[in-house]
Write a structure and sequence with these properties.
By secondary structure, the chain is an alpha/beta fold. The chain has a single domain, classed as Spore Coat Polysaccharide Biosynthesis Protein SpsA, Chain A (Alpha-Beta Complex). Helix content is 24%, strand content 22%. A seven-stranded mixed sheet has the order 5-4-1-6-8-7-9, with helices on both faces. The chain has a two-stranded antiparallel ribbon with strand order 2-3. Helix 2 links the parallel strand 4 and strand 5. Helix 3 packs antiparallel against helix 5. It is globular. 42% of the residues are buried.
Length: 200
């Protein structure tokens, strides 16, 4: 097994390019939670970990640019899902691996990220809860960009199915691990901040 790269040699992709349907069409990454946009929580967590912070967004580019080193967008305008953002991120990532995270998981902590990164090598590493892979919490080798491009052109749009086909290494987390909670509906915006899961 190859030696994983140090986490500070990893590009980081924050996915913020969805329709926001469960948020009533609002741009989820810019929705305020405890007085900060959701994207700011992720930015504050990962900014010390990489000099190549990429945000995938399909609107409000100027607002997101304040939190990123690079901005990418889907090739198409019809919101084809998170695999489109991963594809765009891999094309511009400057490091050998790319850590992928959603913009709406503000309770992540650095321990989970470093544990996930420690699994990375020639194969992807991905969080698993039970038998279900969580592909939006993953580390993808940059060398897989061409493989993803071929899968995309063949019609693949499922990040989980694509990653599963690559026999990824997995980081097992509890089914109700609060660090992985997605703040993706208006009702969840009032969830209390769980400070211990931010390393505070």
């Amino acid at each position: 097994m190859s030696t994983p790269p140090p986490i500070n040699a990893c590009s980081i992709l924050l996915l913020a390019g969805g329709r926001g349907q469960r948020m009533g069409g609002r741009d989820k990454g810019l929705v305020l939670w405890h007085e900060q946009p959701l994207i700011a929580w992720l930015h504050d967590l990962v900014r010390p970990l990489s000099d190549d912070l990429i945000i995938s967004c399909n609107r409000n580019n100027a607002q997101y640019a304040a939190y990123a080193d690079q901005i990418v967008a889907d090739d198409d305008n019809d919101f084809q899902g998170p695999l489109a953002g991963i594809r765009a991120g891999l094309k511009v990532a400057r490091h050998t691996h790319m850590l992928v995270l959603p913009c709406d998981a503000p309770m992540l902590d650095q321990k989970l990220l470093t544990d996930l990164m420690a699994l990375a090598g020639d194969a992807p590493a991905v969080v698993r809860q039970g038998q279900y892979l969580e592909p939006l919490f993953s580390v993808i080798p940059g060398q897989l960009s061409n493989q993803l491009e071929n899968a995309w052109l063949a019609g693949e749009r499922s990040p989980q199915r694509w990653l599963r086909s690559l026999d990824p290494r997995t980081l097992d987390c509890l089914d109700q691990d609060p660090r992985l909670a997605n703040i993706n509906t208006p009702e969840l915006l009032d969830t209390p901040t769980i400070k211990q899961y931010r390393g505070n």
